[in-house]
Design brief:
Strand content: 25-35%
Shape: globular
Oligomer: single chain
Length: about 110
Amino acid sequence: MKHLLAVLCLLPMGAIAEGTEEQVDMPDLAADALVDKAGDARRVRGLELSRAVNGRNGGKTMCATTNAYSDSGSFIGLTYWEFTFDADGAELTSMRNVTGLNSDCYSARYKKY
């Protein structure tokens, strides 16, 4: 009887622990993907992100800009990035550099990350 009571007391705690799984935000997923692509967080400078909007195929889209530098270290402009997420924004499905392409990222409003 004591064991049954102990199991019944622990059951709600397990259910609560399952529901508190930390969800990663889309801006964090985008920033992590850029760092992975660059190979080092110090190489991703001046990161600014747009808000997420509903994209094609039921997913969400977000844009970003990063500062671009020449090999000698001189600032040469911005690099524009487009991120596509699944419908609930929990998984990054694609990332591409859209600098110089016809992209909605050029007209997006950005905030520093």
